[in-house]
Specification:
There is one protein chain. By secondary structure, the chain is α/β, with parallel strands linked by helices. 41% of the residues lie in helices and 17% in strands. It contains eleven helices and 13 strands. Strand 1, helix 1 and strand 2 form a beta-alpha-beta unit. The protein binds NADP nicotinamide-adenine-dinucleotide phosphate. NADP nicotinamide-adenine-dinucleotide phosphate binds next to helix 1 and helix 3.
Length: 321
């Protein structure tokens, strides 16, 4: 067990909760700052996790969090950061400025180990060339980390991540309960979904693995799926398999523009649509030193079904059936 705690930025999110659990299983102490403690309630029962409300964009608060730790893991990310050139202000704040702040705070505190979560598709020089503000700003953040040669950094680039609580399969299951057909832009976009448990393991187990220092790792699952196939799979799981109608790009973009104003469960942006224009597929298998045998989607499907059944039963109970 490491002496001082690990600072887990973005620890209240979907991937962060799993990373926190893995770190706890390794008997580590973990500090998770959040903007809203209520959002981090899933962490409150983990024995060696401390959750603090804090503003990590405030240098003094960040410095005091970093000072008490041995290592920093950065999972902060946003899918919608507003519009702007080369990226919107929310992307600048969360994906670029915050990364600079973290690097500076780590340096000042003498904390050398930094693990940073980027995204599959991000590559060197991508801040100029990638098709979306999300990816370009992620590339800029990654560059800041990679240029910090004095720190022992490791970068992870996951493909889309699945697992209980995801915004992928669960969202597509819910959509098919409510919509009679699924109109879909970029239906042929390709992904290599990776299980959240594998991502959490890769991150947490790298903390002490010297071999991972100054390396970027792609994290992708064992199979390539198109968006259309993923939606069909989710439809089968939910028992409401709807027809998927592929939209031409012009209509897909218009749909994304309209969905910018939709409720959270349906929301999509023109920038998300732009992200889909490049394949989200890894160059090769997960690096052997991470010792991950990636889990296929089908292996995790029963857990979605159990959760789905529980929700249906709860809805029926509430409706008095
Ligand atoms: N999920 C995927 O499929 C996927 C795929 C590739 C890469 N990634 C990357 O993996 C990371 C984690 O993803 P996730 O799915 O776990 O995200 P998530 O569930 O949306 O969680 C995001 C986390 O970031 C924090 N956060 C968001 N905006 C922030 C801001 N402006 N200032 C400070 N904190 C902020 C949130 O903290 P509070 O709200 O508690 O403050 C939350 O803990 C992100 O960097 C994402 O880009 C995710």
């Amino acid at each position: 067990m490491a002496g001082r705690p690990v600072l887990l930025l973005g620890g209240s999110g979907f991937i962060g909760r799993h990373v926190a659990a893995r770190l706890v299983a390794q008997a580590r102490h973990v500090i998770v700052p959040t903007r809203n403690r209520e959002r981090a309630r899933a962490l409150l029962t983990l024995p060696t996790v401390q959750v603090f409300e804090a503003d990590v964009h405030d240098d003094a608060q960040l410095a005091s969090l970093v000072r008490s730790t041995d290592a920093v893991i950065n999972l902060v990310g946003v899918l919608d950061g507003g519009r702007g050139s080369p990226w919107g202000p929310g992307f600048e704040r969360a994906h670029v400025k915050l990364v600079s702040r973290i690097v500076e705070a780590a340096r000042a505190a003498g904390v050398r180990r930094l693990l940073h979560v980027s995204a599959l598709g991000v590559r060197e020089g991508g801040e100029q060339t990638l098709p979306s503000m999300y990816l370009r700003s992620k590339a800029a953040g990654e560059r800041i980390v990679r240029e910090a040669a004095d720190l022992q950094w490791t970068v992870f680039r996951p493909s889309v991540v699945f697992g209980l609580g995801d915004s992928l399969i669960e969202r597509f299951m819910a959509l098919q309960r409510w919509l009679p057909v699924i109109p879909l832009g970029r239906a042929d976009a390709r992904f290599q979904p990776v299980w959240v448990g594998d991502v959490a393991r890769a991150i947490a187990d790298s903390l002490d693995a010297q071999i991972t220092v100054h390396r970027c790792y792609e994290l992708a699952g064992p199979e390539v799926w198109s968006l259309r196939e993923l939606i069909r799979f989710a439809g089968e799981l939910s028992g409401f398999r709807r027809r998927v109608v592929g939209l031409p790009d012009s209509l897909g973009r218009l749909q994304a523009m309209l969905l910018e104003f939709a409720p959270a469960a349906l929301r999509m942006s023109r920038d998300n649509f732009a992200t889909l224009s490049i394949d989200n597929v890894a160059e090769g298998a997960i690096a052997p030193e991470l010792r991950i045998e990636p889990t296929p989607l089908a292996a995790v499907a029963p857990s979605y079904l159990d959760e789905h059944e529980l929700r249906l039963a709860e809805e029926r109970r509430r409706a008095g059936h």
